[in-house]
Amino acid sequence: MTKNILKLAAVPSVFGLVSMSLSVKDSGDFKEYSTDGLDLSYTVPVEDDVEPHDLDVTNFANVGTSFAGFKEALGFKESRNDYSRINKFGYLGRYQFGRSTLLLLGINDTEDFINNPVLQDKAFIANLARNKWVLRKDIKRFAGKEVNGVLVTESGILAAAHLGGPGSVKRYLRSGGVDGFRDAFGTSLKSYMKKFGGYDTSFIEADHYPKVEI
């Protein structure tokens, strides 16, 4: 299967938002694919102590619930939007990527990654595309429903997958919120599902094998 390449596209830029789009091959029968053996646990974010609505509103002027708003809010939650941040567990950059996830996206040089904001934004979008592909059936099944007291939305699902990986989100949703994941800081999937619900992530196209064009 030909691997899809992340390419730049004309998408409005907001506060450093990197403009790009993801393309996928024509849809086929995905039943043959399995997530068995995939590294589905991705990021370990910073402490769970800031709500998106408590952030400095000057950073979110005119972005609202757009994709730009989603990107800014999640980046702030992960690292205070610090592209150079490396946390005590070794997670890297604005979005706190693990090295194994970067390898899946075709990024081998972590030194270049930590010094390259454009590359970090590309990786963020590519990772969303992969998570959206893995969770495509769950998005269709659960979006608009309430699970464990939280209204499920596509953006909430993708944010939770960024926290704990799509495999953890699958188990959480399919168990009715009973099988919950918490990261090393104690942050839960439920909290991310709630914090980042209601954003427009329709811009992201599901892609089984996204690769970042460096």
Description:
The protein has 214 residues and is mainly α. It has a single domain, classed as Lysozyme (Orthogonal Bundle). 36% of the residues lie in helices and 4% in strands. It is built from eight helices and four strands. The strands form two sheets. Strands 1-4 form a two-stranded parallel ribbon. The longest helix is centred in the middle third of the chain and has 18 residues, at 117-134. The protein is globular.
Write the layout of secondary structure elements.
Layout: E1 4-5, H1 67-79, H2 99-104, H3 110-114, H4 117-134, H5 136-142, E2 146-147, E3 150-151, H6 154-164, H7 166-174, H8 189-195, E4 210-211
Parallel strand pairs: 1-4
Antiparallel strand pairs: 2-3
Helix pairs in contact: 4-6, 6-7, 6-8
Q: What is the gist of this entry?
A:
The chain has helices at residues 67-79, 99-104, 110-114, 117-134, 136-142, 154-164, 166-174, 189-195; strands spanning 4-5, 146-147, 150-151, 210-211.
Strand content: under 5%
- What is the CATH class name? Mainly Alpha
Tally of structural domains: 1
First-last Cα distance? 21 Å
In sequence order, what are the helices and strands, one letter per element? EHHHHHEEHHHE
Number of helical regions: 8
What strand order characterises the main sheet? 1-4
> In this structure, how is the largest beta sheet organized?
2 strands, parallel
Radius of gyration from CA coordinates: 16 Å
What is the count of β-strands?
Answer: 4
